[in-house]
Design a protein that fits this description.
The chain has 295 residues and is of the alpha/beta class. It folds into two domains: 103 residues, no CATH class; 176 residues, Glycogen Phosphorylase B (Rossmann fold). 43% of the residues lie in helices and 14% in strands. The strands form two sheets. The chain has a six-stranded parallel beta sheet, sandwiched between helices. Strands 1-2-3-4 form a four-stranded parallel beta sheet, with helices on both faces. β2, α2 and β3 form a beta-alpha-beta unit. The protein is elongated, with a radius of gyration of 22 Å.
Amino acid sequence: MIYINTAGDFKYFLPLSRIMKIPVILHIHIDEPDDSLKWIKADCADRILFPSKATMTAILKHSPWIDSSRCFYVHNAVDLSEYFPHPTPQLKNELSINNNLPVIGIIGQLKKIKGQHLFLEMVKRLSEQNIKAYYIIVGDDNLQQGKYETFLKRKSFELGIQDKVMFLGYRKDIPEIMNLCDLIVVPSLREPFGRVVIEAMACGTPVVASAVGGIVEIFEDGYGGSFFPSGDVDVLIEKVLYFFNHPDWWKKQKTLALKRCKEEFNQKIHTHKVEEHITDVFYLYRSMMNVSKRA
């Protein structure tokens, strides 16, 4: 039995495993649609696991050559020993956050489908309404050699909000940043799952997220956060304003976010589900081999 937790270059490895009659589970984490599945010969896997039902459905629609009976989804999980609610005095000091203004953040790789440009438009509009807050953008743009990051910084100047937004770049202290933020915004245009959402929720930080991909499978609207139509900055702003105009509701969302994450997205549950698939494939394969021997 071989379990592959990636979508790397298995163009030759997967067909070879079929020839050698070794069962393979391919657990992939990709955006939809993605032609790499054909390139790596994914149809040679005995089972394909996806991070969300939405991604699995989109992939099967885009790649009808994949045997749907071999496809299942297992939601990602978060390490609750690393992501949990705690104060962040040192980080506040580092970022010169020394008052009670709310902190609104967006965390993730800098690329257009993650929607950082929409976050900047949100900041501009909120500032025009005299909403005072700290806004932080965490992530780098290594895949595009900094082109999108350059675009975002130029856009912040064009919008006149360069002094209101902190670009923090790549950070290793994401749990601390999640706890620093009063609200995490996830304006993705496409998202296979949305790990940043469960990381925020594990820290008791509510989210306002676009209703796309696997994100809508993480929580129900009003149970740890709010949704808005992807790309709709007007509704995004309404949702963010509602959080800060209703502090009691915001506190309730903090509690609900943490509860939801502990119950549905802890590592133990994720591991158990993966183990079930491994066991299932193993026994199916052994049954097939026994039938083959009797024949």
